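User: quick one - fold this with S-adenosyl-L-homocysteine bound?
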Amino acid sequence: MGNKYINQLNEQYLDVMKTIHDNSLEVGVPIIKDEGLDLLLAIINLKKPLTILEVGTAVGFSAIMMALNSNACIDTIERNKIMYQKALENVNLLNLNERITVYYGDAVTLELNNLKKEYDLIFIDAAKAQNQVFFEKYSPLLKDDGVIITDNILFHGYVERYYNKDLMEDVSKDLRALARKIDRFNQWLKNNKEYESHFLDIGDGMAISTKKMR
Ligand code: SAH
Ligand code: MG
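Assistant: Sure. Structure tokens for the protein plus S-adenosyl-L-homocysteine:
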């Protein structure tokens, strides 16, 4: 739900984006939370990226919102065929084909030479258990002054509960395992020597990472 007062202050979506947003939530596509989106767009307005890489397109909601709020060319990767096709449709609908390229494939194995050599911003929002794999694979494509944003680092509160050794008896084994993996990634990122990260309780939890310059 989020904070209604804050929501009305923030810029509202185009009608067509509101439709994509609401339809996605209705059928359970895990698109970025409104508060997370506002943070992402604020960073985009500050950073003015010209190249963006997104891992995890789903139906293209976040990619399109980033495109509408920047002049960036966006490469985005999706492994689910139905999602991929829906994303292409939505990108077409908004006439953003020239600026958004959707790659159909697994981001774990995708050949890097399909992509650009350097990105101003990388948004990691795919399979949460593989955050570290994505970070290690794609961070070499980040410009020195670039930023990496990782979504869902709190995963509906399960990561904090796991960390606090909550018994989580109401939670399935799979979800517990996922919470453990996300916590491992967060701790790894915290101790990463090359990147400085800020971990925020916004949306479903987001980490903002930049290369250490000091
Ligand atoms: N960024 C989107 C939401 C992405 S949801 C938005 O906010 O609008 C996560 C998506 O990542 C799902 O569609 C899932 O199919 C995709 N995904 C998960 N693991 C992946 C992988 N290894 N490679 C490519 N896509 C992946
Ligand atoms: Mg997400």
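One thing worth noting: The mean pLDDT is 96.
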